[in-house]
Amino acid sequence: MTDETNGEGTFEFVEKKVDEISISGETGKTDSLSSLSSSASPLTGSASLSTGSLLSSIAPPSALPSFVTSPSSQPPSSNISPQENLYPNLKKDEDFIERKANTEKEMNKQSQQQDKLHPPSTSSEQPIVNISLTDNEASDSGVLGAGLFSWVKETVANNSVLSKVAEKAKNSVNSMITTLDPQMREFIYSGGDVEIFVASDKDVKVSAIREAFQNVFGKATVTGVPVNVTTFAPQPVGFRAALTCAEERISLARQNPTLTPEATIVAVENFLLKIDGNKWYDLGVVLLNDPKNNVSLQTFTQMTPVPSQIVTLAEQATPENYPFKSSGLAVTIGNLMANNLQVSHNEWHNALTSVSRKDVILLAAKSLAGIYKNTINPV
Prior knowledge:
The protein contains 12 helices and 8 strands. The protein has 379 residues and is of the alpha/beta class. It folds into 3 domains: 1-59, no CATH class; 157-188; 191-376, Alpha-Beta Complex (Maf protein), CATH 3.90.950. The strands form 2 sheets. Strands 1, 2, 4, 5, 6 and 7 form a 6-stranded mixed sheet that branches. A two-stranded antiparallel ribbon has the order 3-8. A hairpin with a 3-residue loop joins strand 4 (264-275) and strand 5 (279-290). Helix 4 (135-158) crosses helix 5 and helix 7 packs across helix 12 (357-376). The termini are far apart.
């Protein structure tokens, strides 16, 4: 470019060979460059372009590509979008993303199916830890436990003080249980080497004999055998009649097929006793017979005073020709006293003296059991 002396600026383009510019594959653009020179001539004012200038062969600039296309601007006959022309790898990326999304969906579906088959444990569930001991550890713990218990057992057995404390604690617990439920006494203290049969099925007699022998021997099995005496008066009078009636009860009990000939049998028989003219008392004899050890023992209960008027009523109710009058009376004192005191047959002792008949028999039976224990197991 050179400046003229008249002050007007003109442009002069240095012509270069078209051969130095190579545009491969675009022959149509050469034609468009020729049109650019004709359209750009008004800009130069009075400047004139030579026919062989470079601009004569350069086409005008084409419109810039638009990256935002609308469906209406796309040609309906073409299936290739402008994005595919400008970014040939975009289609491949979209395919990869779609395959990845499909794979993740399939994995999620399989995970949900596995969760349904095997639901995961909640946080509240604690893992179960199995702790197994080796043979040596198990044997060591067993030996240690056995040694500890053996030591405790030997210590308690050899130490009289500890033995008494343990026995007292055991008796206290058993006493509490039997106090809350008296029927548990039969199950707690039953067993052992002592077996006693009572020649009666009345509970007041059987329970008293059972408690007495279990207290003395620790454990004893006591069973009642029903007996019906028909050869003696229902109300014996005097010691001889009472002892004879008790022996008869034992003899009838031995006829029971469930008893062995060597069974130990205890009989209880209440009778009337007259002392000092017109004073009457009710008491009972407790008789034990053990053929195996050749032991025969007897004790008597405490005496309970009986009003003479009641005895008179019993004598009046006994006929003169009563066949068993020699052994006693036809009416028992218990029935008359129960009718007079308005209580049951077995409660008249308690109603009259505040001491039950069971307690009266129990005290005498304890004495009998103690004597029997010392007889068969002498110190």
